[in-house]
């Protein structure tokens, strides 16, 4: 399959901290058209592995600025769905659109990340031998490579953004600590901060509170709620107390398709959801 080159307006995507744009100019600079209020569309997406249907005509939409929770039993296809959105897995059929016009199935993983879709995997991948602030500086400086980035002089705007990210991630008092010395939860927040440094429009988080203490889980809920509006978020979790503390709209996946969607109370009362997931 041939992969087309990105249009120039996407290749030259600049992070928002580099200078605000407005109106049509903003659309041109980002290439993202969300004029219908949706940031992500999945329509009839199918993925098979050796004949096994991991995604089976999955259709889902995420609104701009929304925080969507996705729940469902093991093997339902939640991670596979994120793999499809981020270009890691190609669907066998179906549509995957970022905004109205960007067909994600035609782009590579790195391009999709640059277009503004950030993904947090379960295991934190921070640079343990660097300080918290340096990890954020590295993430802010983008694709320059580690050594070039360390020599790279941060602008005042970038210093302000690092301070802001330290506040958001509750790591301000640990800014000089080596990332390797942080707790598991703090590493997760640092990685979220590093993703935010790229100013993603859509952030995908796969089981963000797995392995966290109750106190860390609570702080993570506050952190994610504070991101709503500025970013669109899709959060996959099994921890129902956590889901209850952040959820607006909840999607239940089962056997590769949407089983139910609505408020947490609505899906919790759904007999089919109780049978395949919550009742176990
Ligand atoms: N690369 C792959 N090769 C073969 N099978 C795969 C692959 N990736 C996923 N699967 C299968 O697809 C199905 C969906 O897996 P997926 O990881 O998306 O589920 P999930 O909803 O994220 O589950 P969990 O809650 O356990 O994380 C599973 O049966 C899994 O074994
Ligand atoms: Mg998974």
Strand order of the largest sheet: 6-7-8-3-9-10
Query: Overall pLDDT, averaged?
Result: 87
- Work out the helix count: 12
Strand content: 15-25%
Low-confidence stretches: 1-29
User: What is the CATH C-level name?
Assistant: Alpha Beta
Q: Could you describe the largest sheet, including whether it forms a barrel? A: 6 strands, mixed
CATH superfamily membership: P-loop containing nucleotide triphosphate hydrolases
Helical percentage: 25-40%
Q: What would the CATH topology be?
A: Rossmann fold
C-alpha-based Rg, rounded: 19 Å
Distance between the termini: 43 Å
- Shape, per Cα inertia axes: globular
Number of domains: 1
- The overall strand count is 10
User: What's the architecture, going by CATH?
Assistant: 3-Layer(aba) Sandwich
What ligands does this structure carry? adenosine-5'-triphosphate, magnesium ion
Q: What is the string of SSEs from the N terminus onward?
A: HHEEEHEEHEHHHHEHEHEEHH
Can you describe what's shown?
It comes from Craterilacuibacter sinensis. One of its GO terms (cellular component) is plasma membrane. GO terms for molecular function: ATP binding; ATP hydrolysis activity. The chain is α/β, with parallel strands linked by helices and 280 residues long. The chain has one domain: 3-Layer(aba) Sandwich (Rossmann fold), CATH 3.40.50. The chain contains 12 helices and 10 strands. A 6-stranded mixed beta sheet has the order 6-7-8-3-9-10, with helices on both faces. A 4-stranded antiparallel beta sheet has the order 2-1-4-5, with helices on one face. The longest helix is centred in the C-terminal third of the chain and has 14 residues, at 184-197. The chain binds adenosine-5'-triphosphate and magnesium ion (MG).
């Amino acid at each position: 399959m041939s992969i087309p080159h990105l249009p120039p307006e996407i290749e030259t995507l600049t992070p928002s901290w580099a200078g605000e744009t407005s109106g049509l100019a903003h659309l041109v600079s980002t290439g993202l058209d969300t004029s219908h209020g949706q940031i992500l569309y999945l329509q009839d997406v199918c993925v098979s592995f050796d004949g096994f249907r991991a995604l089976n005509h999955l259709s889902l939409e995420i609104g701009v600025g929304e925080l969507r929770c996705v729940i469902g039993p093991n093997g339902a296809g939640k991670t596979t769905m994120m793999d499809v959105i981020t270009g890691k897995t190609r669907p066998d059929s179906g549509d995957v659109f970022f905004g109205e016009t960007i067909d994600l199935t035609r782009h590579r993983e790195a391009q999709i990340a640059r277009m503004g879709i950030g993904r947090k995997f379960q295991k934190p991948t921070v640079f343990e031998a660097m300080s918290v602030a340096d990890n954020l500086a590295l993430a802010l400086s983008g694709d320059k490579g580690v050594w070039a980035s360390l020599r790279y002089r941060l602008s005042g705007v970038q210093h302000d953004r690092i301070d802001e990210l330290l506040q958001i991630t509750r790591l301000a008092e640990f800014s000089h600590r080596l990332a390797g010395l942080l707790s598991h939860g703090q590493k997760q927040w640092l990685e979220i901060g590093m993703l935010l440094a790229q100013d993603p429009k859509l952030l995908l988080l796969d089981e963000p509170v797995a392995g966290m203490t109750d106190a860390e889980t609570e702080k993570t809920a506050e952190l994610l709620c504070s991101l709503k509006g500025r970013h669109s978020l899709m959060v996959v979790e099994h921890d129902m107390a956590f889901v209850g503390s952040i959820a607006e709209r909840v999607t239940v996946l089962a056997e590769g398709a949407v089983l139910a969607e609505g408020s947490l109370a609505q899906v919790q009362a759904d007999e089919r959801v109780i049978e395949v997931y919550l009742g176990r």
